[in-house]
Specification:
Blueprint (H helix, E strand, L loop, with lengths): L6 H24 L6 H14 L3 E2 L11 E5 L2 E3 L13 E10 L2 E10 L5 H19 L7 H13 L4 E2 L5 E3 L6 E5 L16 E4 L2 E3 L5 E3 L6 E3 L5 E3 L2 E5 L4 E3 L3 H4 L7
Helix pairs in contact: 1-2, 3-4
Bound molecules: magnesium ion (2 copies).
């Protein structure tokens, strides 16, 4: 069952999305060679609680941390650890909140120091594929329009989209209907309705789309060991446009906050 949201509910989801965006910005400022991923997790939890919210991932399905921190070939759901970031790494930071009874959920992949041109291209193309998916998130279009926009763009660079993990509806639950795949056929799938709120989150691999699950039952990596990037925004479906709730301007230093 897809739960359509009222404008009041979408406003609360936006408050969550903005807090997640600011948390990602705080984490991004600290991403550097020598920093442990656990330090990033600690600062995110403190920042979220200082703003009167609760970490959305902590305890969700038994997940033990505030952030999913996925380095290099880890696609998603990496555990924070004592691993020290190294120049040339990339780290996907996926963050959730609970505030006023609703969830927030967004992600951004940061380069650690200077990365290779090949790696920088993966980040740029994955982020752009998210924007292309978002452009299709308008009432009357179909889920396949979003997936097709992402897939066709990234495949033109020789990359592949992970299929086992998908985007999702979001509201009082972190994962609601519908599923939002990063592949698909234009004009097919469920129709997008005004008031739907979804997370679009391309997980894009430099090489094969195949993945494997780590022994901890959470982290997922590429089968070939090549890098994977992940960007995620919350979007409300409107009659003639996609209303983007997540704001990367905080992360990219185009907007200040406290
Ligand atoms: Mg998500
Ligand atoms: Mg997420």
């Amino acid at each position: 069952m897809v739960k359509l949201k009222t404008d009041e509910e979408i406003a609360i989801l936006k408050e969550n999305a903005v807090l997640v965006s600011k948390t990602l910005a705080e984490v991004g400022k600290k991403v550097a060679p020598g920093v442990t991923t656990m330090e990033l997790d600690r600062l995110a939890e403190t920042f979220i609680r200082d703003h009167g919210a609760v970490p959305g991932f902590l305890g969700y399905g038994g997940f033990p941390y505030t952030l999913c921190l996925s380095v290099n070939d880890v696609v998603v759901h990496g555990f924070p650890s004592d691993y020290r970031l190294v120049e040339g790494d990339i780290i996907s930071v996926d963050c959730g909140t609970i505030f006023k009874g609703f969830y927030g959920d967004s992600a951004y992949t940061f380069p650690v120091g200077e990365v290779s041109a090949e790696t920088a291209k993966l980040l740029e193309v994955t982020k752009e594929s998210l924007e292309r998916g978002i452009k299709m998130a308008v009432a009357g279009n179909r889920l396949g329009d979003i997936g097709h926009a992402v897939q066709s763009y990234i495949e033109s660079f020789g990359y592949s989209a992970v299929r086992e993990m998908v985007g999702h509806g979001i509201g009082r639950n972190m994962h609601e209907s519908p599923e939002v795949p990063n592949y698909g056929n234009a004009g097919q799938g469920k129709k997008l309705l005004e008031g739907m709120t979804i997370c679009i989150e391309p997980m894009i691999n430099m090489g094969t789309r195949n993945i494997y699950l780590h022994e901890n039952g959470w982290a997922i990596s590429t089968s070939d060991g090549k890098y994977s990037a992940h960007f995620e925004k919350m979007v409300a479906i409107r009659k003639d446009h996609a209303e983007v709730l997540t704001d990367y301007d905080y992360i990219e230093g185009k907007k200040s906050y406290n």
